[in-house]
Amino acid sequence: MPRLALYALAVCVLSVAAAVVSFVQGSWLGIVWVLLAGLTSNMAWYYLRRARAGRAGSGSVTG
């Protein structure tokens, strides 16, 4: 798993936890955390797909 995908996944998990804590405390600031979780989730998927495409493309032989 690419390092950037792991970092994005870690930030996603932490932002979900922060959103839960924020909503439990009655703060509407949790909406910002939810949006951050969505953004970092998409970033993690992007980096995973890019790494897979890079591995698949480098294995092909042209000639």
From TrEMBL:
UniProt keyword list: Membrane, Transmembrane, Transmembrane helix
Keyword Membrane belongs to the record: yes
Domain of life (superkingdom): Bacteria
TM annotation in the entry: 28-48
Name of the protein: Secreted protein
